[in-house]
Amino acid sequence: MSMVSCLPKPSGMAILGDRQISYEDFELEWIGECDSKVERYCRSLLGSSKIGKIVIDIHESQMGLPNQGMDESYVLRLDEKIGIEAKTTWGGLRAIATLYQLASSGELSRQLEITDRPRFGWRGLLIDVARSFVSIGALRRILDGMAFLKLNVLHLHLSDDQGFRFRSEAFPGLASTESYSQAELEDLVSYAGDLGVRIIPELDVPGHVTSWLVNYPEWGFSDLSEASDRFGVHKACLDPSNEQLYEDLEILFSEVGAVFPEEFLHVGGDEVHPEYWSKSERVQKFAGETDLGGIAEIQNYFSNRVFEILLKINKKPLAWDEVLHEKMSDCVIQNWRGSSTRDRALVKGLDCIFSSGFYLDLFYPAEVHYLFDPESEQVELLELEDQLAVDLRFKHVAGGLKWTEQWRKGSINLHSEKLRGEKQLGRVLGGEACLWGELVSEGNLFPRLWSRLPAIAERLWSSESEKDVKSFYSRFLVVKACKEINWDRDEEMGLLRAGLNESQLDVAKLFEPAKWYFRLLGEEALNARLHGSEMPIARPYDVNASLDRVVDFLSPESFSARFLDEDLNTHALSILLERWLSLQPEGWPEDMQKGILGLVEVANRLRDYLWGDQLTKKEVRYLLEELYGPHGEYVIAVVPPILKWLDSHESR
Fold first, then answer.
1. Does an H or E element contain 226, and which?
2. 529, 521 in Cβ contact below 8 A?
3. 597, 585 contact by CB (below 8 A)
4. What is the pLDDT of residues 262-305, one digit of tens each?
5. Residue 347 falls within a domain, yes or no?
6. Least C-beta-crowded within 10 Å: which of 74, 167, 172, 387?
């Protein structure tokens, strides 16, 4: 298939030749009834363009909201006219997104026939609005970008220790100052529905409930004066022995369910700290009376009670993989603790949402996410995880990556003959990218999202065999200019607000934020975590941190560095070295000065190698690897492509 600049890559496409047309004003023609959702979306994206006539045939207009299992297939033809055919509204919307991308990237001069459908029905994005509030306007902008990328599930993490964003009428004391009214959320659901996007709410229980217990201490174990301002695992949890709690949860979940008509409701279940349950005489007495053997069984009891509540109010439960238990009730599992938890869910016959390779808050480049496939065999996924620990780009967090191997405990070979013959396996419904809010504000949200989310969108839509990283980046470079995901503008505006001047932008973009949880934990807490004693160690960030430095606005992946190696030769490198050697660290923001010094040192070492005849290739490679970083919270992203060039350079 010849490359056409659209993303995700269509499942089927034929390029039939050149298209001889005159570009006339936009015009719509319908075969059969006009579909209001498709027409509105088409006019909003293409109404002011010189695209000519578009003939649309939607077999069944969908008046309701999108749903799991909806048909999103379509056929798009570029001939004398533009033709769109789809069985449903949802396919029509996806066709419009493709056509808009083709028009924006100058592809209308080709005669094309695209026959397309998604690989997975669940293609999602989690936004953590609990730790960092996101306005309704920004959420609408996210939805616009999701529709552009053909994503169809927005998962809102509405509650956590730091905040509760849903204004409950039954329990008004729950809501934080910054929160959403039910009317605002209903409007958002409607807006999303018009774009073919479902919104799934999450209220996280029984842990992560500090904000809950401030005004409703009877649900837990201790009086709390305010929601937490720190990040990390908290001891606060709900009381599983309290019958009144379950009655109140039914009222609360019913309220949430009425606002969000989606069939699924997410109930969290992650990172439950055991201390209060272990020390509570009431809980321990309750556990003894109900034959619950320990903390895991107590949590499973709580989970099953909550699942019963959801079924009673006609909702399907969805939870994080910590709820996995041999005695658990039916639930869709969202896996995040490494790849092995996916198979632990599937072997129990539970459907699964794959997220373990899709955490956008880890500051990984797009290619890392792109290679994690929700249906790859476990051994392949674990190999990808292992490769990160030996990749120079993650050397500074290799110990942390090794720490996560504990999540492989209890892993199962899903593809063994025995399991295939004896078990009714669950299904992988799809996947979700997750952007947790600790280091995110509305000001830097979009460079965080759009610089990597397109890779995950393609992984979830396109064929499993589509793993050509170079092809993805080539198409992404074209498509990212569209206003829906043009994050470069947001990045540059943020860098200028952070104190840089225009002349410094190009150099700043040769840096990236440090990877994994290096920034969030800080070096001291990171080392403590590796030794199992993180809790007493203060983290460098909390909810009051001002995310207004250069590191907060830099894209997690430096495209300047990534594509440097395509044009890199000794002459081009010489020009760069001359500029880097002239840099004066004192002219940069204080937190960047270590990084600028590091870049100057990179230039010095390369100069010594190229012209000073003082270093061998092996010696300069070692020095450059050491200079990669971190320098404070920055890494010098230009080092890996320089090392690639060095490997091809004539040795001495």
1. none
2. yes
3. yes
4. 999 999 999 999 999 999 999 999 999 999 999 999 999 999 99
5. no
6. 172
Q: Measured between alpha carbons, how far is 519 from 363 in angstroms, rounded to an integer?
A: 10
- Quote the CA–CA distance of 37 and 547 in Å, as a whole number: 38
Residue 307 · residue 332 · CB < 8 Å: no
Give domain status of residue 336, yes or no: no
Q: Residues 175, 311: one domain?
A: yes
Tell whether 505 and 604 lie within a shared domain: yes
pLDDT at 475: 96
Find out whether 496 and 489 touch, Cβ atoms under 8 Å.
no
303/166 same-domain check: yes
pLDDT at 39 over 70: yes
Written as six digits, the tokens of 220 are 């837990």
Write out the two tokens for 82: 């533009």
The parent domain of residue 302 ranges over: 158-323
Instruction: Say how far residue 10 (Cα) sits from the centre of its chain.
Output: 22
Task: Give the pLDDT confidence of 222-272 residue by residue, as tens digits.
Answer: 888 999 999 999 999 999 999 999 999 999 999 999 999 999 999 999 999
H or E element: which one contains 571? helix 570-581
Strands 12-18 and 110-116: what pairing?
Answer: antiparallel
Residue 613: pLDDT band with limits 50, 70, 90: confident
Domain C-terminal end among 62, 88, 116: 116
- As a whole number of angstroms, the distance between CA 97 and CA 92 comes to 9
3-state SS, residue 229: coil
In a domain, 192, yes or no: yes
Provide the domain count of the chain: 3
Mention every residue, 6+ apart, whose C-beta is less than 8 A from residue 551. 513, 519, 591, 592, 632, 633, 634
What is the signed CA dihedral for 34, 37, 41, 47, rounded to 10 degrees? 30
Residues 497 and 580 placed together within one structural domain of the fold: yes
Whether the predicted pLDDT of 538 surpasses 80: no
CATH number assigned to the domain comprising residue 202 = 3.20.20.80
- ∠ CA 256-258-260, rounded to 5°: 70
Whether 175 and 47 share a structural domain: no
Residue-wise pLDDT tens digits, 424-449: 899 999 999 999 999 999 999 999 99
Q: Which of 323, 346, 381 is the last residue of a domain?
A: 323
| Owner of token pair 């904000």 | 211
56 and 195 housed in the same domain: no
Q: Are residues 54 and 202 in the same domain?
A: no
Residue 169 and residue 67 share a domain: no
* R_g (Cα) of the chain, nearest Å: 26
What is the CATH classification number for the domain harbouring 62? 3.30.379.10
The model's confidence at residue 1, banded by pLDDT at 50, 70 and 90, is: very low
pLDDT digits (tens, 9 = 90+) for 160-215: 999 999 999 999 999 999 999 999 999 999 999 999 999 999 999 999 999 999 99
How far, in Å, CA of 258 to CA of 323, rounded? 25
